[in-house]
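WARN retry 2 of 3 for item q-0093 after timeout on previous attempt; input resubmitted unchanged.
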Amino acid sequence: MKSHELYAAVDPAIVTQMLDWFRSNDRNVYKSAVATLAGNRKLRPIFIQKKSLTDQYAWIHKTLKINACDTIGEHLMQAFLMAGQQSMLAMFCDGMGIPHDGKGSVVGDLPKKLDPERLNTTIDRLVGLFDPKLLTLYLHCFNLQLPGGWPELSGKLSSDERLVLA
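OK item q-0093 returned
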């Protein structure tokens, strides 16, 4: 799935959580995202900024579902996960035996293949610790890092009933 497809499928509460996180922790990214998305839609950012927060979030989410906004959408998703969900990312990397910097950022090359048994064990553990919808978003985002994704992870995402975006 591309990022615009993820935004189309994800629970709006996850998008709200992501935007709240940016407004609280990195307001410049939030403002930049609004400006970029508004520019892509040929609007002035002030038009969006004057809306209520609920309406801003709804407009941003709606706009991130557009294919033309795929790049900004993927960057926002990655920035949120890398900065706001480090423990989940680190635990996934640990479970999969992927070297990382302690914050979930992979060190070196990504693996060519994922061990299905380790993947199942790691996901079973993480589903119990984190919001399954947020975990699913991360797994989809991780799967974007390899062209075509990992067959083992793609299969797990399509077959595990716990791993749904909405």
